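worker-3 :: picked Probable dual-specificity RNA methyltransferase RlmN
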Amino acid sequence: MENIELRGCLEDELTEICLQIGLKRFRAIQLFEWVQQKAVRSWDEMKNVGKSDRHTLSTRLRFYALDKIREQRSKDGTRKYLFRLEDGETIECVLMDYARTTSRDRHTVCVSTQVGCPVGCSFCATGLEGFRRNLSVAEIVGQVLDITYYVRQEDPDFQVTNLVFMGMGEPLLNYDRVLKAIQLLNHSRGLNIGMRRMTISTSGVAPKIVQLAEDNPQVGLAVSLHAAQDAIRNDLIPMNRRYPLEQLMKACREYTQRTKRRITYEVALTSENAKREEAEALARLLKGHLGHVNLIPVNPVEGTGMERPDPEKIRRFAQVLEEAGISVSSREERGTDIDAACGQLRRQWEGELK
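worker-3 :: tokens ->
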């Protein structure tokens, strides 16, 4: 009989399993709340579930927490985690805290969806290590749950408020599992993170962008654009050869027409591409699109040869877009003192093991 991952089960699925093995429906609700809301990491922490029932449940449900093997803390409060999975593979995720003027601070977790990445963007540390496999639903959700668990040891009232699926991997190439993870993380008996506080970031899987508009129009979308010309984008993001800009922008337009939600277009700026002509090409490409440009000074990553531009270049690049009527902002730098770029901590760890 199949052994199912507990952290990847919806409440209805747990109810069905409980009824199949002779347990009451309320056990499923208790189980779901212990795992998805209270973020416990073991059967023994479920205090109101009897030992006999826990044993019975463990014959049908696999319950394992991610193994935290490294944590880095930035002076700005950002925390970066390296987790080891059951098969020995490792993944990263990041917690970013932003103080707000309202009654609640914003706590954003950047989640990985794959071990490594098949896209191979030229500026990304994750892609340098290649692709290993997709993460399961339990492994995706587990990153948020385990960060919640660890932070609550210091702050019992801690709650994740925002999620971005833009850690290691291409979320839209693990589409079904990512959407189920979103269901779990949004559940009212779980962490209850609002759909509109979650964002999926993609390198440009055009058909899945259109499908996302149909399947979950509430979740935000960010597109890693980075260049406005196919010849340049082919080198930066090999995915562009499969889904060139014409096809990608058509999918983006369809997404905004269906959802009425604007897309965030991510543009990584280097000392080489932060030029006026690049900004002008970007403005032409995005004219008439419902979107916002987020300029990102590239993180220096050993092996890519790319360097970040100086602040004045970034300012001038943004000015060109603003003058063309394009909404634009520059990403607030977080965690630069702890190598916060996706894949850097994992590469460092694996290098130490060699």
